[in-house]
Amino acid sequence: MGVTNLWQILEPVRQPVNLSSLKGKTLAVDLSLWVCEAQTVKKMAGVVTKPHLRYGSSNCLSQQFGS
């Protein structure tokens, strides 16, 4: 899911920013994927042991071998 190699594509234009320089500014972060992932882990609670590890390992396998 997402743009393949996005971080590698953006690397040439990356500009590190000191957090203090953002004081008084509005910062938007897209958390929708993280929220969906957290819901998936919550649904596994009580069904599998250590759902966070199962989610993480399945995510890594998905990245390595595809869905």
From TrEMBL:
Pfam families: XPG_N. GO terms for molecular function: 5'-flap endonuclease activity; four-way junction DNA binding. Residues 1-43 form the XPG N-terminal domain. Gene3D superfamilies: 5'-nuclease. InterPro entries: PIN-like_dom_sf, XPG/Rad2, XPG_DNA_repair_N. SUPFAM superfamilies: PIN domain-like. This is XPG N-terminal domain-containing protein.
